[in-house]
C-alpha cells in the first residue's frame, strides 16, 4: 500500500500547473520529488494535503482518497517557512500538535525531546522571532513531525541549513524511517537524493518526466558511467561534436565519450549495449596502467540535466531571491496568485 | 458549505481544532503588553466616565458659582430681593435642560447686594461677578431691570436671570394689585397636565422625542459607543491576527491541519472571548460607579452631592434587564458578523500595513450605523423615520439602531427580537463569505485583488 497520484491536473487560469501527474510512493520509503522551480512540486504537495483540489485526477493513501484521510496522517514542511513570530517555541509546537489531536502534555514532552535532539533545547521558551533562520527551520521541522505522521512531506528541507544541521536532519530522517514513516521531500541538492532516496519522481512544467526506484531510473537512461584513471596520462575530452579525445584507443570503442575530464580521473559515458569491461580490456591491451576503474550508473544530477535541459541548482537561485523579497516569494506557488482558483 | 463534511479528513476535528485555535488566540494575546495596557486604560477611562458627575462636582467644589450683584434692591422694601433672586435662580438652574450637558452639575448662583452701580460694574469687568442686575421703578411704578454682563443675550445665565426677573416683576404687580402672598403661591401652582399617546391602548411607549428622555438617550448613546468600540477594536485584532499568520507564512502549516472555516471560527471565538473578558473587566467598575454614584459623591463631596449624581442615576434607572440582555446579544452577534468579515478581508492582503485599507469599507459601514444611531438618539434624525426603522433591522446596522430605538422606547420588544433573529441568521452567512474569501486569499500574495476577483472568489469558494 502506498501513496498513489493518478492523473492529477490542476489549472490556474490559463496556466496548467499539473498536466496529468501519475506516480506512486511506496509506503515506508524515502522518496525524492524533483523538478525545477515552477515545475509543479508545491502544487502536487498541496493537492496531496488537500490544501488544493485538483481539476481532475485523484490522490490516494492506502486506497483512500487523500481528501478523506485523517489530517494527522500528514506532516508538512512547506517551502515558505513560517512560525508565529511572537509565540514561544514550545507553545507553537504544542499548538501545532494540538491541531492533530496530540494532548498538550504529550506534545510538550515530545517537543522537548526533539529540541534536545536537534541541539536547541534552550530555545523552548524563546520567541520564534529571536531564533536564527536555521534554528527556526528546525522548529518547523519539529512542528511537522511532532504528531508522528505516517507520511512526511517536505519542500526543500535542506535549504538554509549549515552542514552540521544537515547531518542532524539526515539523522532525524533515519529515525523517522525506522519508525515506519514515509518521507517525501523535494530538493535541488542531488547528492541528498543519491544519499537518502530509494525512489524518485522528476516533473517538469507540470508533466512527469520519470519516476521509480533510483536503480531503475538510472538504468532507464540506457547508458552507464565508467570512472577511469590511467597512470601517467590525463584523459581529455573531445569536442562536443565527437572529436578525438587525448587517448586514441578510447575513440576506437563505439559510443563511448568522455563526459567529465579531470586531473585524477575521468568519467566516460558508455551505452547500454557496450560492456563497460571492454574499456578496461582495451586499456590493458594497449599497455595502459589502470589505477582506477569503476562502473557506475549516471548520477541523478546528470539525468536531471539530460531530461530537464538545465541543472537543478537554478532552483537555489530562485529560492534565495525569494527570501529577499518575501511577498514575491510564492515559489512554485506562483500560479496560485490567480484568485479565481482558491485553495481547497 | 461552511464546514467540511464530517467524513472528510478535516471534518473529524472541526470542534477540537476550533477550540485549539481559539485557545492559541487567547493565550497568545492575553500575554501581550497591548492587551494589558488597553485593559487598564479602558478600566480607568470607563470608571472616570461613569464618575464624571462626581469628578466635575469635586473639581468645582472650591468655586462659589456665578456671583450676581444686585443694585437698587431697596425698590423692593417688603423682602430681601437678594434672597429671592438666589432662590429663583438656583431653582431654575436645577431643572433638566439639553441632555448632552446632562453630565454637568447645575451651576450655582450666589446673589449679593452691591453698594453702588460703579462697584458692581467693576466687579463684572474684573470677573469677580458674572453679572450685575440693576433694579428700578418706572413712572408707572413697574419694576425695570438692567443686566450688566459679558454674557450674550442667549446665554443660559442671561435667560435664567430674565426668567427670575419676570417672576419677581409679576409678583410685584400682584402685590401692588392687592393679592396677598398666600394666594400668590396658589396662583403659581402648576396645573395638572398629562401627555397621552394618540392610541389609547398604547401604554408601553415612552416619549418619541429623545430630548425628553435623558436617561434613555444616555443609555442608547452609551451602549452604541460600547458596541462601536468593540467592533472597531476587536475586529481589528482579528484582522491583524489573520494578516500576521499570512505575512509570517505560518498559514500554510496551519492549513495542512485545519480548514479555513475552523481557523476562522476559532479566531472569532478566541478573540471574542478575550474581548468579552476585557469588557467584563471594564464594565464592572463602571456599573458599580454608576450604581453607587450617590454614595461615592457624598463620600467625596459631603452630603450635598445628590444633584451631581442625577445623570448617573437616570442612566441606571433606564437600564432595564431587557435592554441589558438585548445589548449583550447584539454585542455578541454584531461582533461575530463584523469579526468574520474583518478576518475574511484581512486574508486578502499580504502585509499588515494594508489592513486598514482593506477593512475600510467595513469600518465605514460601522461608522455610519453608529452615527445614524447617535443622530437619531439626539433627535437630529427623526427616530421614527422610515429609514431609521428599516435600518434597525439590517444586520450591519441593527446592533446600533435597534438598541437606540429600544432604549428610547421607540421600538416594541418584538421588533428587537426580529432584529436579533435576523442578525443571528447573518452570522453563518458572514462566516461562509469570510471562509470563501479566506480560502482564496490566504495563499495569495502580492497586490490586493480587485472587487471583481473578490466576487469570483466568493462564488467559486
Characterize the structure shown:
The complex is a heterodimer of chains A (344) and B (461). In chain A, a hairpin with a 2-residue loop joins β1 (2-12) and β2 (15-26). In chain A, the strands form three sheets. A six-stranded mixed sheet of chain A has the order 6-7-8-3-9-10, with helices on both faces. Chain A is an alpha/beta fold and 344 residues long. Chain A folds into two domains: 2-217 and 313-337, Rossmann fold; 222-296. Chain A has helices spanning 41-48, 89-99, 104-117, 133-145, 163-178, 190-196, 214-219, 248-251, 277-285, 300-308, 314-324, and strands spanning 2-12, 15-26, 30-34, 56-61, 64-65, 74-77, 151-155, 182-186, 199-204, 207-213, 223-230, 257-260, 266-271, 290-296. Chain B is 63% helix and 5% strand. Chain B has helices at 14-30, 33-50, 52-60, 81-93, 117-126, 156-176, 181-187, 214-247, 251-257, 260-291, 293-301, 310-318, 321-346, 355-378, 386-391, 398-407, 413-441, 451-460; strands at 66-71, 109-113, 131-137, 143-149. Chain B has 18 helices and four strands. The radius of gyration of chain B is 30 Å and the shape is elongated. Chain B has a four-stranded mixed sheet with strand order 2-1-3-4, with helices on both faces. In chain B, α2 (33-50) runs parallel beside α10 (260-291) and α3 runs parallel beside α11 (293-301). Chain B has 461 residues and is mostly helical.
> What oligomeric state is this?
heterodimer
- What characteristic shape of chain A results from the CA principal axes? elongated
The proportion of residues forming helix of chain A, as a percent range, comes to: 25-40%
Strand tally of chain B, please?
4
Beta strands of chain A, count: 14
Q: Tell me the name of the CATH homologous superfamily of the largest domain in chain A.
A: P-loop containing nucleotide triphosphate hydrolases
**Which CATH class of the largest domain in chain A?**
Alpha Beta
**Biggest beta sheet summary of chain B:** 4 strands, mixed
Largest sheet of chain A: 6 strands, mixed
Give me the strand/helix succession of chain B. Answer: HHHEHEHEEHHHHHHHHHHHHH
Which overall shape of chain B is indicated by the principal axes computed on the Cα atoms?
elongated
Q: What structural category arises from helix and sheet content of chain B?
A: mainly alpha
Amino acid at each position: 500500500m502506498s501513496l498513489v497520484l493518478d492523473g492529477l491536473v490542476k489549472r490556474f487560469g490559463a496556466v496548467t500547473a499539473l498536466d496529468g501527474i501519475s506516480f506512486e510512493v511506496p509506503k515506508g520509503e524515502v522518496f525524492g520529488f524533483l523538478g525545477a522551480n515552477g515545475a509543479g512540486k508545491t502544487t502536487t504537495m498541496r493537492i496531496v494535503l488537500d490544501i488544493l483540489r485538483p481539476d481532475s485526477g485523484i490522490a490516494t493513501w492506502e486506497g483512500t482518497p487523500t481528501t478523506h484521510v485523517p489530517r494527522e496522517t500528514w506532516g508538512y514542511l512547506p517551502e515558505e517557512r513560517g512560525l508565529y513570530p511572537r509565540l514561544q517555541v514550545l507553545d507553537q509546537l504544542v499548538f501545532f500538535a494540538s491541531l492533530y489531536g496530540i494532548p498538550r502534555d504529550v506534545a510538550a514532552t515530545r517537543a522537548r525531546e526533539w529540541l534536545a535532539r536537534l541541539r536547541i533545547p534552550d530555545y523552548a521558551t524563546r520567541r520564534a522571532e529571536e531564533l536564527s533562520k536555521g534554528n527556526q527551520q528546525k522548529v518547523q521541522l519539529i512542528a511537522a513531525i511532532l504528531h508522528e505522521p505516517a507520511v512526511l512531506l517536505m519542500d526543500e528541507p535542506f535549504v538554509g541549513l549549515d552542514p552540521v544541521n544537515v547531518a542532524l536532519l539526515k539523522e532525524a530522517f533515519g529515525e523517522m524511517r525506522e519508525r515506519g514513516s514515509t518521507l517525501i521531500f523535494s530538493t535541488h541538492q542531488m547528492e541528498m537524493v543519491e544519499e537518502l532516496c530509494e525512489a524518485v519522481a522528476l516533473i517538469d512544467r507540470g508533466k512527469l518526466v520519470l519516476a521509480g526506484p533510483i536503480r531503475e531510473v538510472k538504468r532507464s537512461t540506457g547508458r552507464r558511467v565508467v570512472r577511469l584513471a590511467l597512470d601517467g596520462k590525463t584523459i581529455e575530452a573531445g569536442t562536443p561534436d565527437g572529436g578525438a579525445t587525448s587517448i586514441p584507443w578510447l575513440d576506437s570503442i563505439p559510443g563511448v565519450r568522455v563526459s567529465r575530464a579531470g586531473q585524477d580521473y575521468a568519467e566516460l559515458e558508455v551505452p547500454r549495449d557496450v560492456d563497460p569491461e571492454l574499456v578496461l580490456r582495451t586499456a590493458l591491451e594497449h599497455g595502459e596502467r589502470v589505477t582506477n576503474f569503476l562502473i557506475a550508473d549516471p548520477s541523478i544530477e546528470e539525468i536531471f540535466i539530460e531530461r530537464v535541459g538545465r541543472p537543478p541548482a537554478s532552483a537555489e537561485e530562485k529560492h534565495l531571491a525569494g527570501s529577499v523579497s518575501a511577498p514575491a516569494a510564492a515559489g512554485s506557488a506562483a500560479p496560485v496568485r490567480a484568485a479565481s482558483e482558491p485553495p481547497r | 458549505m461552511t464546514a467540511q463534511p464530517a467524513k472528510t479528513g478535516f471534518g473529524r476535528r472541526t470542534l477540537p481544532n476550533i477550540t485549539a485555535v481559539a485557545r492559541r488566540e487567547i493565550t497568545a494575546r492575553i500575554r501581550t503588553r497591548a492587551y494589558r495596557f488597553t485593559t487598564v486604560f479602558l478600566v480607568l477611562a470607563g470608571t472616570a466616565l461613569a464618575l464624571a458627575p462626581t469628578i466635575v462636582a469635586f473639581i468645582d467644589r472650591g468655586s462659589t458659582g456665578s456671583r450676581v450683584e444686585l443694585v437698587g434692591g431697596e425698590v423692593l422694601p417688603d423682602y430681601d430681593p437678594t434672597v429671592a433672586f438666589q432662590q429663583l435662580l438656583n431653582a431654575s438652574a436645577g431643572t433638566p435642560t439639553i441632555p448632552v450637558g446632562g453630565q454637568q452639575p447645575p451651576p450655582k448662583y450666589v446673589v449679593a447686594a452691591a453698594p453702588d452701580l460703579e462697584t458692581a460694574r467693576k466687579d463684572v469687568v474684573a470677573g469677580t461677578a458674572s453679572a450685575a442686575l440693576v433694579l428700578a421703578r418706572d413712572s408707572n411704578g413697574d419694576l425695570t431691570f438692567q443686566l450688566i454682563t459679558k454674557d450674550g443675550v442667549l446665554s443660559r445665565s442671561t435667560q435664567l436671570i430674565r426668567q427670575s426677573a419676570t417672576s419677581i416683576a409679576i409678583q410685584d404687580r400682584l402685590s401692588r394689585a392687592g393679592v396677598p402672598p398666600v394666594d400668590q403661591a396658589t396662583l403659581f401652582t402648576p396645573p395638572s397636565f398629562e401627555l397621552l399617546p394618540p392610541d389609547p391602548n398604547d401604554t408601553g411607549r415612552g416619549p418619541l422625542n429623545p430630548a425628553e428622555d435623558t436617561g434613555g438617550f444616555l443609555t442608547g448613546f452609551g451602549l452604541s459607543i460600547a458596541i462601536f468600540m468593540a467592533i472597531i477594536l476587536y475586529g481589528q485584532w482579528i484582522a491583524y491576527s489573520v494578516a500576521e499568520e499570512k505575512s509570517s507564512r505560518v498559514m500554510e502549516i496551519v492549513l495542512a491541519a485545519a480548514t479555513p472555516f475552523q481557523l476562522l471560527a476559532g479566531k472569532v471565538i478566541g478573540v471574542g472571548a478575550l474581548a468579552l473578558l476585557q469588557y467584563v473587566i471594564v464594565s464592572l467598575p463602571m456599573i458599580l460607579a454608576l450604581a453607587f454614584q450617590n454614595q461615592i459623591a457624598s463620600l467625596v463631596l459631603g452630603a450635598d452631592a445628590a444633584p451631581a449624581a442625577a445623570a448617573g442615576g437616570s442612566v441606571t434607572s433606564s437600564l432595564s434587564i431587557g435592554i441589558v440582555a438585548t445589548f449583550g446579544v447584539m454585542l455578541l452577534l454584531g461582533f461575530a458578523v463584523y469579526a468574520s468579515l474583518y478576518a475574511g478581508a484581512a486574508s486578502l492582503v499580504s502585509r499588515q500595513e494594508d489592513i486598514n485599507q482593506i477593512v475600510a469599507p467595513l469600518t465605514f459601514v460601522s461608522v455610519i450605523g453608529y452615527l445614524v444611531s447617535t443622530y437619531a438618539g439626539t433627535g437630529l434624525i427623526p427616530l421614527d423615520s422610515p429609514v431609521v426603522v428599516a435600518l434597525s433591522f439590517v444586520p450591519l446596522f441593527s446592533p446600533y439602531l435597534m438598541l437606540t430605538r429600544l432604549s428610547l422606547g421607540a421600538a416594541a420588544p418584538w421588533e428587537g427580537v426580529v432584529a436579533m433573529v435576523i442578525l443571528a441568521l447573518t452570522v453563518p452567512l458572514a462566516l461562509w463569505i469570510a471562509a470563501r474569501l479566506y480560502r482564496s486569499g490566504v495563499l495569495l500574495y502580492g497586490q490586493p485583488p480587485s472587487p471583481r476577483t473578490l466576487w469570483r472568489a466568493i462564488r467559486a469558494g
